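Appendix C reproduces, verbatim, an entry submitted by the partner laboratory led by Prof. M.T., so that reviewers can inspect both the input and the predicted structure.
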Amino acid sequence: MQILMTKAAYGRIADRLPAVAPHAEVVTAVSADAYEHNGRPIAVEDVDPEVVWLSLDSFATGTLGQLFGRLMKTEAPRWTQIMAAGIDNPMFRSIMEKGVRISKSSAQATPIAEYVVAHALSLQVPIEAQAALQKKHEWKNTPYRELGRTRWVLVGFGNIGHEIARRIKPFGVDLTVVRRNPAAEGDLADRVIGLSELAGVLPDTDVIVLACALNDETRGMCDAAFFQALKPGAILINIGRGGLVDEEALRGGLDRDQPAHAVLDVFQTEPLPADSWFWDHPKVRVSAHTSNSGDGNLARGDDLFLENLRRYLAKEPLLNEADPSEVGLRLPERA
């Protein structure tokens, strides 16, 4: 079995790989359409991998396009582990149309969850007000609402949603989870509802987090009616996709304190244009699609690939395997 990955990724897992796949032939992408096997160049026509690992470092090394190109041009690929938690990028649909199985990444769930909790806490606890008082040498009380007395709505309950829930439930928050299948088990949640029921809980929501996929059902879900229904003073945190939010409707909502604050890591246009109103709005926090940038991502991604490779070879269910229906496909069942 041939496995294609970046040279950097192979360097990190080379000592652990033999225990999982002792007979694997590893080919590494070195530079534009150049490959190596056992440290020596290998002809492009000999690169025909059964497994392709689109690891997170493929961005930094500039080999993502190269890896994707070989995956699409060759006949052997049957499974790929990707670096993304979502598969709305058209390239992932192309991969699945080819009949290749995809496993999504959960590596970034940890830093994204920490990002969400950090921003929510800093907007509940009056840290900025306390700093301003300190600067003025003014001794003054700064009361605030405790996190455990707030109601949260978490839209999406995949790996990221679960990691957020694991961090906020110990505070004692009341948590409503919105998921595609509300009948599914909602561990950590006080209640589980479908997207059609979301409007009914918005008037009582203190913090709403968008952690769902972007698809035909969720595109523009946060529209004018959404913000009209939202509790005044609420906090909106979007770490999903920019297309989930009608940005002009959000601006109107902010004018009414519905929400009072918006923490936005994703936008309809990225990079965010320098003249965008988001940058200077006093109620908006902007980050450059970087909530996932924790320093443990590579290590978690390596562990996930190795575990899924073990499962693939053992013909066991893969962790985080994407369903073709997520990209609007209906493919025949595998034999």
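The domain at 109-286 is CATH 3.40.50.720 (Rossmann fold). Additional entries are available on request from the coordinating office.
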